[in-house]
Design goal:
- The chain has helices at about 1-10, 15-60, 70-85, 90-120, 120-135, 140-150, 155-180, 180-190, 195-230, 235-245, 250-280, 280-295.
- The protein is mainly α.
- It has one domain: MetI-like fold (Orthogonal Bundle).
- The chain starts with a helix and ends with a helix.
Length: about 300
Amino acid sequence: MSTVIDLVAMGTNAPSTDDLAKLGQDVVARKRRRSRRHWLIFLVIRLVSLAAVLSAWQVYGMHTLAVLFAPITTVVRDGIDLFAHQHLASQLGYSLWTFGIGYLWGMVFGIVMGMLMGAYRSVEAAISLYVIALYATPMVALAPLISLWIGFDASAQIIIIGLFVVWPVAVTVFHGVRQIDPELLEVSRSLRLSKTQLWKHVLLPGAVPYIITGATQGVAMGLVGVIIAELQTQLSGLGDALETQAQTYHTAGALAVVLLIMILGITLRALLGLTQRRLVPWLRIDRGEGKMQKT
């Protein structure tokens, strides 16, 4: 509104190039200040919320039996002790290794299936029923069967983790391809783009935000798969650490392992957020402008 007032104040004469440039710089500067202010408010709210949760955790833990719960200070202390004296670092490394391989193959197969189902009706008719059925099936119910079929080693764990990842990724990417603007597809047909050009310039760029969304869901589901796989097969990694602490009634140690898993999920999610900013910066800009307009 102030920009319009400035233009009106100039009178009936058309604004010069320098005036327009100055007005444009003022608009950009105001948007940057507003964006920084919103980011600062968001950060303050998050820090206050975190402080409130940790304070409540500490107070509740101090007034509860140690076998049932523990203060956050005790949890952190026991977590450090697990790293220093009980091989939690090597267990974390093993879980990250199995998670990485399982997550990778789950992402690859999920993206391929989702893209093919979204791009071709024949592929959707052939496999979408089974993809949706498996997506709705709790993978924890299949973990014992996979262990029975494959064994109780790392291979079974990797397959279980991948199965937790592949179906949500496939369904998300499938719906993402179907959400691509039909006008873009019509223009591509009018321009007589080849299939390779269609995939390169329309389908893949349009599906990138949904691939990132699927990857984010895959992180959460993959971490769940890690713990279930390590508990259902051979005890190893973070699952072994969690089971050992819980079975020996070391509640603070068990909570320390759970807290480590939560921190791991947050870290991986933040890395995906950075990847999104690199690959689809326009999505972040659109969302930011939408939030500023609502406020």
